[in-house]
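Hi Y.,

Following your request, here is the sequence exactly as I used it, all 305 residues.
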Amino acid sequence: MKLTKMFFILGKGGVGKTTLSAAIARKYSEKSKTLAVSLDPAHNLGDVFEKKLGTKPKKIAENLYAAEINLDDAVKDYISNLQRTLKHAYRYLTVINLEKYFDVLENYPGVEESALLETMRKLIKKDEYETIIFDTPPTGLTIRILILTEMTLIWLKELINIRRKILDKRKAIEKIQGEMCVVINGEKFEIPTSEERDAVIKEMRQYEGEMQELVSKIRNKELSSFIAVLNPDQLSYLETKRIMENLKKINLELGGLIINKFEDNEISAKINKEFSNLKIYQVPRMKETRGFEALEKISGFLTDI
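Below is the corresponding structure, written out as tokens. Let me know if you'd prefer a different format.
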């Protein structure tokens, strides 16, 4: 199944991001297999759909699936997968007790961003859905996740170059001393000297390719759309300005704005004037925002999103 569209719904807490994410998902499910996934640690996507949700996507209507990512579980899965990768790449070190080193990974800076990025990457890579709507975490965390996509590519490029230098030095030593190996507890392990036989550089190259694919999808304006949700108040307005500025720093752009709980006031006029280059949707205050009937009414204000 070909992924045709991704939405990243951004905004400060309490403006209605989750409700709008659910409404957009409901709208797209009418024509494509759609997943709404909450990355926000303070989940209420299940409350909006009136369904109990978990990390595994759950079918809640025809063509409509939803999930709430548990951050603690995402971190544990990320670290577990990282451990398996390291143990595979450094097989000759598996006889040594590395668990005490792996334990510190759970507390290293950026682990939550890395875990959520991996969750996003895997969902997108699976190609199980034609449309994915990401109900994002608070703005700061979301921006750090997006920055991390670019930073990861930079790190991988440098790490691959460093690894090549290590292999070159090993090869030079091998020419003088012969085959390179290490014996641990009576077991002999070959030390690779070429890229073709080095599991470490193979892992890095594979992950580099996967991250390049993810970045290209996020940067594809036909495929990815960044939508900011705000209320007609000063705090929401200022937060939206910060979102736009932060996206520009990483060469991304807002694709539109949704003024939720719309009122015809001074702030609404300011929003419409300042963001006149964007498509702006106005959703009035609704008495009910939970359940499919309410979501269908809300989606009626998002006609061409």
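The beta strands are 5-10, 34-38, 58-61, 64-68, 131-135, 181-184, 187-190, 224-230, 254-262, 279-284.

Thanks again,
Q.
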